[in-house]
Protein: DsbA family protein
Organism: Amycolatopsis dendrobii
Amino acid sequence: MKSTVSTARQKAASAREGDFVTTATLRVWADVLCPWRWMGHRRLAQAIAESGVPARIEHRSFLLGPDGPGPGRRRIAETAAVEWGMSPAEWGSRRDRIEQAGRADGLAIRMDTAWALDSRPAHRVLKLAAARGLDETAAWEAMFAAHLRDNLDLADWGVLAEVETGLERDEVLALGDNEEYVAEVLADHEEGQARGISSVPTVVHGDRLLAGARSVGELAEFVRAAAKAVA
């Protein structure tokens, strides 16, 4: 379940500095439902590039709604009112803050019309992509965009099969007919809870955790510290 973010510039910088010769492995717990995690996904890639050190990401599943959404099929704006008890003004303020932050990272996030859904099928698809040796970082990017930008219904296996994860359509549809990777997704979630993770994104190296929406600078410093720890 590994994805390497590496560029010629990084390698050259590492060779020049000579301090960071070992690849640091960063474990990232995330849910595809989380807009802050999409921003974190982009920022972490940028932070690794700017840090000048080699780093590898292990993607882990974390379920913000482990029991799934409430009854009925709702968009997020309706869920905010019916299930979260938010007034239109409260939700509007939160929505605008998220969407503005996304634009600063070059992301077109549409919160009102995103679906409230069970993210476990999407996580299972991502596990399958990892097992096939596909680019996990690209697969996660595609899944974030499908949910948060395109507002696709990722609870529908036919829709999931069209997300550009690198998998064949028939592979994804077959996954919907069995229980493959259900246990792996749950194991990731439970491991995250055991580590004290309660929000995403959370980046972990050894016993160090960096949680929440962090800047590129903060993430780059975390990456450098991780590389020093394993040098």
In short: Confidence is low (pLDDT under 50) at residues 1-20. The two ends are 23 Å apart (CA to CA). Residues 35-51 form the longest helix (17 residues). Residues 69-116 form one domain.
